[in-house]
Design a protein that fits this description.
Elements (H helix, E strand, L loop, with lengths): L1 E6 L4 E7 L2 H16 L14 H31 L4 E9 L5 E7 L12 E6 L4 H14 L2 E4 L9 E10 L2 E14 L7 H7 L7 E7 L13 E15 L5 H6 L6 H36 L6 H21 L15 H21 L5 H12 L5 H9 L2 H21 L3 E6 L2 H4 L4
Parallel strand pairs: 5-11
Antiparallel strand pairs: 1-2, 2-4, 3-4, 6-10, 7-8, 7-10, 9-10
Helix pairs in contact: 1-2, 3-6, 6-11, 7-8, 9-10, 9-11
Length: about 425
């Protein structure tokens, strides 16, 4: 059995494999003989059917299996003989004169570029008392209670209204509701609609016009003017809970009161800030690596990654309630993302291998412990990780990635930049 190798475009290769027909037929006969010893055919006792009958029924299937095994074995031998690093899976096809071809990609030779040219800006953030105060304010708003009041409605109140609207004297879909709740100032209804509710009292009715924006989501209403009649059913004033030990206890702080609550909030904010800083720095490092080290990416690996991304997207959309027949997703939509992911994976693997970058177990343990600190019972979270090796491997991969990023940062141009927590979180 012989094999010849051709170089196609880029990383693509084609190997022509010539098999020995006599060896193939001998193996087919051997396997048919084994099957014949146990095969049951009507009219014959088990194992007593003539070989010709067994061959007529099974020879096509057996010959396919033998050819497949022989091709895979010869391909593997030829790959080793030519010292090839195959990326993905080969595609076998019949050629002329009984030969076969295997078309495949090989991994690229990666020569890492000059990492000293990578520029990284690293945000530096200190969690302040004001940051804790803002977080407390959010927690209070999540626990707001509303109490009925006898006064005009103002911003921040929750009102309940009956309303009916018409366009050119005709009712329209969605233009009527009973006991409809609106929190004034939240902007969940049209600004002009909310604005006309301000100052109304319980039992008062009012008629006013509202023009729907040109980009309104209901296209049939976009740009049109509706006349609404609204009746105020009730006005409720927002009352926030007090910042006291009872609030702290409701948030899982059983000892230490408000001081402990603020400490917990500060710690959570610091962990979140660290995570976001690491994410921003990592993105800059990865972009810098790709820019400094261009190389060709195996198309077969990109195609496989595209399918993985497409299947994940479809699974996510189905989980959100979309019907499969309504999902318009094609794998080519994910080509750029897939190519980047494959390129980064190959480049990072090369850096890890060439530079002995590892994920020590003490670091893995520390990372798991850090994850656990965000939960009420950290010990349960730690135990959950250690119950499944796959979970620990995910943590191990994160540590390896972090160590790789830090290795690059030691060689890159890094400048620290003071930033506020709000800016880091994208609130300003």
């Amino acid at each position: 059995m012989t094999a010849t190798l051709e170089t196609l475009d880029g990383l693509s290769r084609r190997m022509t494999l010539n098999l020995n027909p006599a060896e193939i037929e001998a193996e087919v006969s051997k396997r048919l003989g084994k099957i014949a010893r146990n095969t049951r055919i009507d009219g014959f006792r088990p194992g007593k059917a003539p070989l010709k009958l067994v061959a007529a029924r099974y020879s096509g299937e057996i010959r396919g299996e033998v050819l497949g095994d022989a091709l895979q074995q010869r391909f593997t031998q030829a790959v080793q003989e030519n010292n090839l690093k195959v990326a993905g899976y080969p595609q076998f096809a019949a050629a002329t004169d009984g030969a076969f071809t295997a078309t495949f990609d090989v991994f690229p030779e990666i020569t890492v570029g000059d990492l000293s040219g990578i520029k990284v800006t690293r945000p530096v953030v200190e969690v302040s008392d004001a940051d804790v105060d803002r977080t407390l304010e959010v927690l209070l708003k999540q626990r707001v209670q509303y109490h009925a009041v006898e006064r005009e409605a103002s911003v921040g109140d929750r009102v309940h209204i009956d309303y009916a609207g018409t366009i050119a004297g005709e009712a329209f879909q969605g233009g009527e509701a009973k006991d409809f709740p609106v929190i004034l100032g939240e902007g969940r209804t049209l600004k002009d609609f909310e604005g006309n509710l301000l100052g109304m009292k319980d039992g008062e009715s009012k008629t006013f016009d509202v023009t729907f924006p040109d980009d309104y989501f209901a296209k049939e209403l976009a740009g049109k003017t509706a006349t609404f009649t609204a009746t105020m059913k009730s006005v409720h004033e927002a009352k926030l809970p007090e910042i006291d030990d009872a609030l702290a206890q409701s948030l899982g702080i059983h000892e230490g009161g408000v001081a402990k609550l603020r400490e917990e909030i500060s710690g959570n904010l610091a962990r979140e800030a660290k995570r976001r800083i690491q994410s921003r720095v990592k993105e800059q490092v990865l972009n810098g690596l790709l820019d400094s080290t261009p190389f060709e990416v195996p198309g077969s690996l990109v195609a496989m990654e595209q399918r993985v991304l497409m299947e994940k997207a479809m699974t996510d959309l189905k989980a959100r309630g979309m019907r499969e027949q309504d999902i318009q997703v094609r794998d080519e939509m994910f080509a750029p993302q897939a190519k980047r992911r494959v390129a980064l994976g190959l480049l990072m693997d090369e850096l890890v291998r060439a530079n002995g970058i590892a994920a020590p177990e003490d670091q893995v343990k520390s990372l798991v412990d850090e994850f656990a600190q965000s939960y009420e019972d950290p010990s349960e979270v730690v135990a959950w990780y250690h119950q499944d090796s796959n979970r620990l491997n995910e943590a191990r991969a994160l540590v390896l990635e972090e160590n790789l990023v830090n290795w690059v940062l030691e060689r890159a141009q890094v400048s620290d930049e003071a930033a506020t927590l709000e800016k880091l979180m994208g609130n300003k």
